[in-house]
Each structure stands twice: as C-alpha cells, then as structure tokens.
What we know:
Layout: H1 2-20, H2 22-31, H3 58-82, H4 92-115, H5 127-144, H6 149-172
Helix pairs in contact: 1-3, 1-4, 2-3, 3-4, 4-5, 5-6
Amino acid sequence: MLYFLISWLWFILPAYFANSSPVFIYGILKKRNYSFHRIDFGKDFLDNKPILGKGKTFEGSMFGILTGTFIGFLQEVIQKTFNLKFIYPMNIKFAFVMSLGAIFGDIAESFFKRRMNIERGANLPIFDSIDFVLGTFLFLYIFLHFWDLRFFLLSLIFTPLIHRLFNIIAYVLGLKEVPW
Ligand code: CTP
Ligand code: MG
C-alpha cells in the first residue's frame, strides 16, 4: 500500500510542478515590469467575456511545461543513479506530455469559468484543483496510450486534499491572506 502511494506520488510529480510553477514566473517577472502575453490575445468570446482572461499567459504556460519536464528529467536521473523501482518509472517524454496536459487542463478550465461568468482569479471549488489532473490523464491517454484507473482516482481524491494542505501551510507562513 505504501509502495503504491509512493509510486503514485512519484508518478504525478511533473504534473504538480507544471501546474504550480506558472504563478512563480508571474511573481518574478511582474516585479521587473515585464508585460505578459495572454494566450487569448486579450480577445473576447461570443458572449463578450474574455476567452480565457488575464491569468493565462504564454510565459506562464511555457514555464510550467519546462518546469514539469525538467522535474521528470531529474526523476529519471535519480532513478538511474539509485536504481529505484516504481510502478511506473518516470521519463522525460512522459513528463513532457503530462506537463502539456496539465497546462492544457488548467487553460480549458479557465475557458469554462469565463463562460460561467466566474471572473479571473475567482474560485470554482474542486475544479480549480483537479483541472490539471484531468488534462494530464487526457493527454497521457491520447499521446502515449497510457491509462491507470487507480492512479487516476488517487489523483482526483488526493489533489484537492494536498491543495488544501498547502494553502493552510501558506496561510500559517503568512504567504496567503486566507487559508483556502
Ligand atoms: N499563469 C499563467 N499562465 C498559465 C497559468 C497560470 O501565466 N497558463 C499565472 C497567472 O499569473 C495566474 C497565476 O499563474 O494569475 C495563477 O494561476 P491560476 O490560479 O490558474 O489563474 P487565475 O488567475 O486564478 O485565473 P482563472 O480564474 O482563469 O483560473
Ligand atoms: Mg485560480
């Protein structure tokens, strides 16, 4: 059971990194007055609402994909160096597809949020934390014919919990105003 959980955590790591890194590049470049390039080019959809909104940029997406892929590369090196065995050993190609999927899932969610009249940055509970999981598994299935029901369910259940946990930690550390 523990082996299974550790295998899952090792497996999902690139997606977690891809999903959580864009906000950092935003924080770093923003301080230098860098102007970001929106994926929707600032355009509105048929409903006269932004297609995706200001929160989805090429820079953030690129950084997320690079970070997730790099994590997968590190994992591959670590596995080989220490001869570690997991249910699914990580490799850079797998991590790249995962990261692409994670970013895609997050972007797709913003599209639906805007259609539902939810402003950029406003919450859509549950979906805000699992959007990238759905994208990750969709892309793994489409491009690498990979599917694992147990890992998928584990990701759906644990991701919102881990999300909450991190938000509470960030709140306690004074990095966030609210604990959610
Ligand atoms: N970000 C980005 N590009 C992406 C994803 C995220 O630049 N593809 C950056 C943006 O600065 C964004 C921040 O990371 O504001 C946090 O991401 P997220 O919570 O997904 O975006 P929100 O601002 O909450 O927007 P939305 O309501 O559309 O989810
Ligand atoms: Mg958000």
